[in-house]
UniProtKB/TrEMBL annotation:
It comes from Cercospora zeae-maydis SCOH1-5. The keyword Transmembrane applies. The chain crosses the membrane at residues 68-89, 101-123, 143-162, 174-196, 250-276, 282-304. The keyword Protease does not apply. The lineage of its organism: Eukaryota, Fungi, Dikarya, Ascomycota, Pezizomycotina. Residues 1-25 are annotated as: Disordered. Keywords: Membrane, Transmembrane, Transmembrane helix. This is Uncharacterized protein. It comes from the Eukaryota.
Amino acid sequence: MATRPTHSRGATVASGVTVASSRRSLPSLRRRETKLMQKKAHPWQHLGRFQRHTCCVYADLTCAGITLGLPMVLLFDLVVPCIAYYVWYDNHGPNPKYDRGILGGAVACFGFGELWILLARVWRLFFRREECAPLLSRNRWELDATSWVYGVAVLIAVPPFVIGAEREIPELYLYSPCFIFGFLAILMFITTLFPFKLPIGINSQARGTRIRPFVFYAAEDFIAVDGLQDREFRVRYNERYEHNAMFRRFFFWLTLFWFFGCLIYIGCASAIIWTLEFNHAFGLIFGILFSWIGVWAFITWRWVKWEMRRERKAFEEGTVDA
């Protein structure tokens, strides 16, 4: 029977080379961690493909919708309502400061961008289920967690807008975005600080496993569907979360970061609503909203870059805990 060769520590010392120095002289065996986003795909490429191959209409029309989603949100949630209101105010102000008709018209604009993105996501999940749906998806109508949360959040914002406009309650009208982020903050708080066992499967997670931080699900769905990274990304993403303690801690703190961000926005919005006249608060409340989202998104982007470099270094050094 073959035996494993042994090395004499005494021989090493006698040769004038210590074990420690011998190890230092050898090149370290380095392994690079698997890259999560491996597809070089972005919506503009699909827009071009849509123009060239009309037979791919079902696949690529949704990419056009996703590509135009952010501009549509900015246009219909910020630009159009502000232009409509302040043009009316210049012609009818300073009294009255608001009118049921103009507020109702602004309501028609609000949410159009979000609805555009939601329909584009649902379209892709429905017609390209085999490519981008969650790993445990059993039928087309399950969609993903983000689509359902997204839809509920949009519906939550409708009653304050409609009631505030119809009853001419300006404070309630301006609080509508706070209802959305209050709802999201509750989900972030529960999923981060109370990781209960799932009574049903969510996304790529089976029933009976511990719920994960809210941002984990949002990132998985947005990158897989909106970012066109598909199911291959979901596999690598969930595998890293299960086997990398640094990755899990990162999402814990990132979710808390967005949770406190929601609270900060709601606090700032409340201060604006109750201290300024409606004609000043109207534009400022939505300007603050998109400014806050932009700042938080930029910090998140930089944080993710830094965290990925830190985890890659730890992986190569073999110091990552499971």
